[in-house]
Amino acid sequence: MKVCVGLSGGVDSSVAALLLKQQGYDVFAMFMQNWHDADATLHGDCEWEEDRFVAEMVARKIGIPFYFVDLSEEYRQRVVDYMFDEYGRGRTPNPDVLCNREIKFDAFIKAAERMGADMVATGHYCRREPLLDDEGAQVVTDGRPQWRILEGVDPNKDQSYFLCQLTQEQLSKALFPIGELTKPQVREIASRADLPSADKKDSQGICFVGKVDLPTFLKQKLKPSDGDVVEVYDAYYSRSGHYTFVHDTLASILEVPGEPNMIAGYSSEDSGGEAFNNRRLSGSAANIYSPEKIAAISDTDLERLSEPLDYSDIRFETETYRSGRKHLKKTRYKENPFGKIVGRHDGAQFYTVGQRKGLNIGGHKESLFVLATDVKENIIYVGEGHTHKGLSRSCLKIDSQDIHWIRPDLAMDDGSVRRYRVRVRYRQPLQDAWLIKRPSGLYILFDSPQRGLSGGQFAAWYDPSGEMLGSGVY
Questions:
Q1: Is 207 marked active-site?
Q2: Which residue from 122, 159, 172, 189 has the least number of CB within 10 angstroms?
Q3: Which domain holds residue 360?
């Protein structure tokens, strides 16, 4: 079997190529260039040129043919333009998920097939296994063997989430040689084989673009525009009809009557690896819901439950006053018990929910976080502290057209309620949740409130075995 390895110049794809060669496959490597504009990156040079040089040395060391393919036009049209469009609408896309769906496992596969490849391999930390029936034979649907995709065995490096939009057809052509290994094991294999990439650091930033200053990157197409930063006070939630509705609805579906937890736990995502995944989250008590009560929620109430808070009802009136010895007439905003204009920004589209850095607003004991953005009115709403009420949400919705089942045989019918574990961002520990299918879409109700959910991201759901079953953009 002829296998094309997407050789990036990193240690993971290098070891994937080495293992396949050792296993007797007819292997060749292909390096894909997806980005040209060095001006967008923080380092300001052509990182891809160095990566290509290392990848070519790795191929030479392993003893496999090396080729180059330029997919930058496809990448710009199918990933970067989508990013600009989503940010322009006040949403936060995930370019890595899109890159895998549109480029690595579509455009790249087609390029590899033109070179004679039967399969494509990458250095992702995940596993592909055949879907077996009760007698141990691989399930075949419409003439196509069916596959499962599972988490990688290394809990600190599992990358299955990035592949949450792959189809059965794409999986049928994919190999993940390092999915059964941990990162230290991969480094050790590369070191023993004296691969040029053995000590190369992992890449960071946007897939194939690199580490960028996001506002600077977005300003290539999105114009800056000054607007207000509004701080939302805790008092707002006591008078918010929407917040009260969410509270009362969650309380009504508890297994045992009581107060629902509506505040998400917090653990710094700056902490990597095992320290992050195993840290106990403060304030993360789980709500125990009744599946019967969940099933009885009306479509209208479920839709409302999934909607984020809208702060547009916080308005500011002005008043005139006289100041100084000359009693000069000036204008100021009247005090508002629910919020205050605390600063200015250069464009709501450059900010995302949960963001802390880049606000540049002082005078607070705790950090400020973005709670919501209003692109139309060009307003950013912020709140003080990790446990601010506005940072938490318990329910989100995936529209019907955005629901993707990796396992189509498990697709939910309208009215069904299932128990799964869900991930809404890379490296997040899996979260217990109920999935509720209605004609308008798929709703995800989390046991524990989630922090900083931003529209445009992907939610992926898993069964207890670690198999990723489906995903959707919320």
A1: yes
A2: 172
A3: 227-473
For the chain, how are helix, strand and coil distributed in percent, rounded to 5? 30, 30, 45
Catalytic residue among 4, 126, 164, 207: 207
Alpha-carbon dihedral sign for residues 126, 130, 134, 139:
positive
Output the pLDDT for position 206: 64
Of 4, 99, 126, 395, the active-site residue reads: 99
Domain limit, last residue, from 187, 218, 249: 218
Listed residues 218, 243, 275: the one ending a domain: 218
Contact 127, 177 (CB under 8 A): no
Q: Is the pLDDT of residue 2 over 50?
A: yes
What is the C-alpha separation between 145 and 127, in angstroms, rounded?
A: 16
The mean pLDDT of 134-161, rounded to a whole number, is 96
pTM of the model: 0.91
Say whether 46 is catalytic: no
pLDDT tens digits, 180-215: 999 999 999 999 999 999 998 887 666 656 566 777
Neighbours of 119 (CB within 10 A): 18
93 with 29, same domain: the answer is yes
Which 8-state DSSP code applies to residue 78? I
- String of b and e for 322-337 (b: at least 16 CB within 10 Å)? eeeeeeeeeeeeeebe
| Residue 146 tokens, joined | 């069916």
pLDDT digits (tens, 9 = 90+) for 276-328: 333 334 446 899 999 999 999 999 999 999 999 999 999 999 888 888 777 78
Q: Are residues 172 and 279 in the same domain?
A: no
Quick one: average pLDDT of 118-130? 98
Closest CA to 7 of 127, 178, 123, 116: 123
- Are 176 and 298 in the same domain? no
- Residue with the two structure tokens 């370019």: 95
Contacts of 61 (CB under 8 A, 6+ apart): 193, 194, 195, 196
Residues 234 and 251 in one domain: yes
Is residue 373 classed as helix, strand or coil in its secondary structure? strand
